[in-house]
C-alpha cells in the first residue's frame, strides 16, 4: 500500500473527485481530505492510498503540477511521520516557564495576578 500526499488543493475538491482522478491510474484503497479540527473546513491537503507501487508512482508523476478545480496541485510521497519521544518535552510548558506579573511591584490578591509565557 502506497500513501500519496496531495497539497495545494482547492477547498471545493471532493473525495469522489480525487478517487476518480487517481483511479484512472490504478486501484485506490482510501481517500482522506484533511479538515480543520475546529472549523471542519478542508485544509487544502489530502492523502490517497493506492495498492500498487508502480501505479502509485505513475499517478504521482502524471498528476504533480496538474490543475484540479482551478489550482495546480502538489502530488508526492509524504515525508516520514515524526515519532513521539517520551524522553523529550513534547511542547508542554512547565511552570518554571510562566512568570507572575505583579502590578507596580506590589503584592496582589490571586484575582489580580496575570500570567504570561516568558518567551526569553
How would you characterize this protein structure?
This protein is an alpha+beta fold and 120 residues long. It has 2 helices and 8 strands. The chain has a 4-stranded antiparallel sheet, covered by helices on one side. It is globular.
- Give the overall shape: globular
- Tally of DSSP helical segments: 2
User: Low-confidence parts, pLDDT < 50 over ≥5 residues?
Assistant: 91-103, 108-115
| Structural class category | alpha+beta
| Radius of gyration from the alpha-carbon trace, in angstroms | 23 Å
Q: How many strands?
A: 8
Share of β-strand residues:
25-35%
Strand sequence of the main sheet, in spatial order? 2-3-1-6
Give the C-level CATH assignment of one domain. Alpha Beta
From N to C, what is the helix and strand string?
Answer: EHEEHEEEEE
CATH superfamily of one domain: RRM (RNA recognition motif) domain
Biggest β-sheet description: 4 strands, antiparallel
